[in-house]
Give the backbone structure.
Amino acid sequence: MSITFTNLVNKIDRACGTNSTTYTLANKAIDINIAQDEVWTVALEELGWNCDDFNQSDYPIITTALVSGQRDYSFILDSSGNRILDIYKVFVKDESGTYHEITPVDQQGNDAPLTMNDGANSTGVPTCYDKTGNGIFLDLIPSYNSIAGLKVLVNREPTYFTSADTTKVSGIDPLCQDYLYLKPSYERCRDTGRDNAQALFRDMQVSWEKIKKRYGRREKDVVRRLTPMAQDNH
């Protein structure tokens, strides 16, 4: 079951003995969003570019025009204004209109094509790209224009709660959403010396282990290797 912002607020107030005056809706929204970011970090580590917020109305794929004579392209926000967290694959459309995946390289490394750094500004159909800052740099400067000539697979930030949107639900796995009220509740009770802080901490730990298992098993159709589990600090 997905839990609305109002549901989360009510659960926090019951656990903490608070109300909208002693623990404002705005502060609850901030703390819930921080908890959601923690879940999202696990999701991205486990699933990478296959992971996306269930509330998004489109896919985490960005296209932009390939411009003749332009080597660098910036990717900060998607079309809905969500911040781009990482770039996973880049495709370039050739002059006949066919996309080809191009190879990631480190512009400062030994594998970088000479055309990236020789200053000759060689033109053609790009075959490699380097990620620098918030954008990519192509090995060859495009010698042609192409509408939607660059296609980029990304991951992006989740959608966030605000105090005004009482019916908002998180875009994380519905079975993991108890963490969104458990973490703020525990921290509030810990900081105010309430007797139930340790019980909330134990519940939060159980929820955290569930999050790691859920996101670690989402891709059941992909064969995965067992790796040592890092010690968790929660």
In short: Strands lie at 61-66, 72-74, 84-93, 99-104, 123-124, 128-132, 135-138, 141-142, 146-156.
